[in-house]
Amino acid sequence: MRALITGAGGFLGVWLAQALAARGDTVTCLLRPGGDASGLSGIDHTRAEGDVTDPASLRPAVEGQDVVFHLAGVRRGATREDFMHVNAEGTRHLCDAMVAAGHRPRMVLVGSLAAMGPSSASRPHVEEDPFQPYEWYGESKAEAERIAFSYGDRLPVTVSRPPRILGPRDRENLTFFRLVKKGLRLELGGGPRPLTMIDVEDVVDALILQAEHPRAVGEAFFCAGPGGKTLSLEGVQDLCAQALGLQPRTARVSPWVLKAIASAADGLSRVSGRKLPLNRKLARQLLAPAWTCSGAKAERLLGFRPRRDLEDSIRRSALWYVEHGWL
């Protein structure tokens, strides 16, 4: 398979490139000029310089590809337009380039559970649920899906919607590991709140399956951890503490205190220009009743079954962070 990966220098992109190269696939990584490619060191790939917000840069990269894995996007932005410009319109630019290439490569778009918004604590989201994002990132990911599927008469398109992803190199959950390393366990009032989580290598397996399976075309799929098991923020920290051999003290924080701290952090970020790990967006995510989804459709149509235990994912992550000086 000849595969192009956008956003290849990121956490998921590096793992995907590594897996494809190990299979003997021909891997091209789309990276912005001057973009950090250190994570791709030692992985057999060709670098293509381009940006999904620059349509002219995309056509050469998609030429001759069998599959385009579209991972590029932004998770933080100051305005709604920041998210829409990259996550939504960037998807449109990429689809246009793929159509212009003329040979109908398959698009595997990496969406997000955030496009659906929070779930209830008693019922995980299924693919048929309507989009109900409650912040700009989720809104932009929902719009990216709509755009991609609007090209369905010209391109074979499939969408993967991962929940929170665990694994070495992940930065999204790193804040909570660092708290534990400092001897602190955060417990939010009104919880626990269930979270669907999945190991990065299981997400990679799902993406490759969606790139090859005929029944994936025209469909969106959640990918969930083994057996539909959920964790909570507190549970993740407990497993991290266990992996590191620590016994952190618990700091119980009420929702209104978390919101106040997050608002102050946003203010400091605006003044200093530094992106702090806590912000109002993260606070809202943490205080939602649940972020859960069902992997039943992917198992039923594609035969996909995640294989990595979440406890082991957290252990591997914690040890990697320590080994590489992130903790």
TrEMBL record:
Pfam families the record matches: Epimerase (PF01370)
Coiled-coil intervals: none
Domain of life: Bacteria
GO molecular function: aldehyde dehydrogenase (NAD+) activity
Residue ranges of every copy of the NAD-dependent epimerase/dehydratase domain listed in the record: 3-217
Entry GO terms, CC: cytoplasm
Classification via PANTHER family: NAD(P)-BINDING DOMAIN-CONTAINING PROTEIN-RELATED, PROTEIN YEEZ
The protein's name in its UniProt record: NAD-dependent epimerase/dehydratase domain-containing protein
